[in-house]
Each structure stands twice: as C-alpha cells, then as structure tokens.
Amino acid sequence: MILSNSKSENMIKHFGVLHGLNAFRSRYKRTVIGRIWEASNYLIFVLIMGPLFGTIFKTDYIEFTYYLANGLLVWNVVNKYLNDALGLYVSSSGYILNTTLSYEHYSVSLLVSTLSAFSVYFVACCFVTLFLGKSIESTIYSLLFWIPLFFYLYLLSKIFALLAVLYRDCVPLLNSLLSGLAFFTPIIWHKEYLGDAQWVVNYNPIYPFLDTIRAVSMGGSPEWINIISQFYLIISALILVIISERFKHLVAKYL
Amino acid sequence: MSLIELKNVSFDYPIDSSLFEIFRRRPPIYIFKNLDLKINKGDVVGFYGNNGSGKSTLLKILAGVYQPVEGSIEINCNRSSFLNIFTGLNPELNGYDNIHQSLLMQQYKPEYINKQFINQIASYTELGEALFKPMRTYSSGMYIRIPFAVAVHKQSEVYLFDEWLSVGDDNFKSKANKTLDDLTNNSSAMVIASQSLDMLEKKCNRIFIFKDQNIEER
User: Fold this and answer.
1) pTM higher than 0.95 for the full model?
2) Any chain B CB within 8 A of the CB of A214?
3) Rounded Cα–Cα distance for residues A188 and A190 (Å)
4) B81 pairs with which residues across the strands?
5) Which of B157, B18, B176, B7 is nearest to B85 (CA)?
6) How distant, in Å, are the alpha carbons of A51, A254, B110, B174 from that of A1?
7) B170 pLDDT exceeds 80?
8) Over the stretch A205-219, which tens digit does the pLDDT of each residue have?
9) Which residues in A177-199 are b (16+ Cβ under 10 Å) and which e?
C-alpha cells in the first residue's frame, strides 16, 4: 500500500508543528467554505463597523475602515492566542497525563495553529485593503513587524498556560482582563481622542506592537519609542518564563 | 544495577487549585509514602489493586509523567508506556495521518518517521482502504488497531501497561496477543497494572498488592 493521497507525505518530524496544523485543518473539515470561516467574523465586523463608526466619529469612512481593519487584525490574533493559551495545558491533558512529550510541543502547536489562523486573517485584511482602493505593498511589508509580536505572544502563552493550571481562578480572571484590555486598546478609536489622558495607552502591553504593525501596514513608519517598548516587554516576558520553568513539573499533578 | 529504582518515593495530589491555596498550608494527603521498589532485568511486575489504590499513579511515576514529591527515582533503561493508547487520535484525520501523528507523539526517533515505516505499521493494522478514511468512520475494533500498531512497533527495554490490551476481532486478537507475548519475551522487564489478579498471575513473576495506601509484594 502506498501513501498516495495521504497528507503525511510532507513528513513533518516535530509533534507540535504537525499537531498544530492538524488541529487547524480538522476544525473546519466538514464545512463548505472551510478555513475562510476563520475570517468571516473579522470581515463582517470591519465591513459593517468601519463605515458605521467612521460616520459616528465624523471621519472619512474609507480611512476609518482601513484603520479599523489593520488594528482589528492585530487584536484578533492577540485575543485568540492568549485565550487559547489559557486552555492550552488543560485541553492537552490527555497527552500530558499519558505521554512524556516536552511541554514545548504544546506551545509550538499553539503557535502553529495561530499562525495558520493568522494567514487567513491576513489574506482577509489584504482583501479589505484592495477593496478600499489601497495598496497591499505596505501590508505585506508589515509582516516583518509581526515577528516580535508572535515571539512575545509565544512567551506570554507559556505563562498564561501555567497559571491557568496551577490556579484555576486565573482562567476567568485573565479572560476578564483581556476583555477589559480590548476596550483599553485603540482599535476603534484613536489615541489622540484621549487628549491629555493619552499617557494611559502607554501602559497597555499590546499597544507598542499594535501601533507599529498598523503604522507600517498603512504606509507609515514605526515610532522608536514603540520599538524600545517592545524590546523591554519581550525581555520582561522572557524573565517571567525563566522563573515559571521552576513550577512546570507541577503541571501534570495539577491537571 | 536495577533497571528502575525508587527510593523513599512519596506522592500526593493537590486538593484544590484556587488562588486561596497560595495562603493556605494544608497537610498533603499521600497516595503512597516512602515507597522503595527495584525493577530488575527479567522482571514481569504486576500491580494489583482496586480503583483509586494508586497503581496507575505509580505507573505514571515510572513512565516519567509525574515527579515524586519526595524521594528519588533512578532510571537505567529506555521505557515505552501504554497508559492510554487512545491518546492523540484525531477522528477527523485518516488512518495514515493518525499513524504519522502517533509516531511523533510516541517520540519515535526521526529516522523512523518515513513513508516506509508508516506503511509497515499500516499493513500490520490490516485496515486496507479504510486507512484513507477519517477515523470517525471506524468501528471501535478498527479504531484501536491504529494506536496499538504504533505502540507495539516501538523497541524498548521496559514496557509499562495500564491494563493488558485486548484488540479487535478474533483473527486480529490472536495476532495482537502474539505480538504482546513477543514483546514480553524480548523486553528486559515489564510492568502491568490491572484489576485482574488471574491475568497478573499468568503473566507476572512479581505481584504487588495496592491497599489502603500500602504496597506489599506478594
């Protein structure tokens, strides 16, 4: 027997990578439009709320929809990644309690499945950009600035996953904090609307990544202060991950 | 030198994992305490006890899933564990894709992750064209053949079983039993946790009884 029509022909040799791809692939397996469903919410939100809020805020609704599409792309990825991270070890308990796979595999699996979802969101964002009559050249160039964000989220996911297992209250607590952070992040509104209170946004741990990616994607240049903030946020997350390694052996026991 | 040696091993499960636990210091409730155990070459060890007696927990400590809270464990062999062979199967994927994923999950060496080896396991299952269909379409007898075939193709010195396996219809069952007997004969040691004392008496040369947080060799 030959593996003629098996997807295994690519022979991936890392469990986390294969598991992440399979998880994303099987999520929309028996649907008509398949992976496009991943972006449906995003497209509906941008194409309805963009013109609506653009009118409410009395701005050019095309420019506002463009701004919203780029901001929401970043937020959707952040929100999906961190929410999934909260259930990472719990949903992988079958593996954790019955195999000796390193926990790194589960983090990689989450990264790969989020990257798969991101690829669909990104194509949808390019579609909206073209639909609004803008060039997608800068949107594609902005991919470079996604790398620090994914690295940061990868580190945060390890901390979130561990906290969610050791202290079960952390799941609803961090979920609520994420919902709060959504309102606290300039996606629908501009930072300048806050007037003298603009400094508040500087304490948002997602904002430096969001503002950089959005600025580049819309043809602008990133601000140096945001690049430096990204560096400090990544180093802080890295230190937390190193500290959290001491408690990792408790995960199986607490599941 | 023993293949596996446990010295003064104790293990407890957390009662609660709420945020208040940070401030509360409750005495642990041990599953077992100060356990010593040596598994030597040629041992076929049976763990017998009721549900919740701790035999699966000890098996998971031997497998490396749990770390003992006290004591030490010395491992001088490579191990394969059959704790729950259904772990990691994705019903939406076909048989071949599940074999590929299971090989990685069972941590086969990268040189084994190739089409030839997957075909070898696939032909062992005798599932034919069904291997191209999603596993959700399989009967339970067909379903178990995939993880069983993946598990028994791994070469190890020590095998750890949580319950002895019984697989498929009569034809396949005799083939599976022969494979398991070959594994027993070719391995350095084996540990089987079960609630069937009859089966353990047939297969094992050492039996440990788990009762009231005590473990005694019979």
Assistant:
1) no
2) no
3) 7
4) B160
5) B176
6) 56, 44, 22, 23
7) no
8) 999 999 999 999 999
9) ebeebeeebbbbeebeeeeeeee
Those residues whose C-beta lies under 8 Å from the C-beta of residue B4, and which sit 6 or more positions away, are: B37, B38, B39, B62, B73, B74, B75, B76, B77, B79, B158, B189
Rounded to a whole number of angstroms, the distance from the CA of B119 to the nearest CA of chain A is 7
Look at residue A4 in the predicted model and tell me its pLDDT.
Answer: 39
Supply A134's token pair. Answer: 């803008």
Q: Do B104 and A254 touch (CB under 8 A)?
A: no
CA distances from A32 to A20, A28, A243, B78, B120 (A): 22, 9, 46, 46, 35
The packing angle between helices A207-217 and A146-166, to 10°, is 150
Distance CA A220, CA B56 (A): 59
Residue A128 pLDDT more than 70? yes
Please tell me the predicted confidence (pLDDT) of residue A5.
Answer: 43
With CA atoms as reference, report the closest residue to A15 among A107, A119, A93: A107
Q: Do B101 and A22 touch (CB under 8 A)?
A: yes
Q: Cβ–Cβ of A100/B18 closer than 8 Å?
A: no
Confidence of residue A6 (pLDDT cuts 50, 70, 90): very low
Strands B70-75 and B206-211: unpaired
Tell me if B73 sits within 8 A of B5, measured CB to CB: yes
Written as six digits, the tokens of A37 are 């469903």
The answer on pLDDT for A229 being more than 70 is: yes
Picking from B104, B129, B131 by the largest number of A CB atoms within 10 A of its own CB, the best residue to mutate is B104
Dihedral angle sign, alpha carbons of residues B179, B185, B187, B189: positive
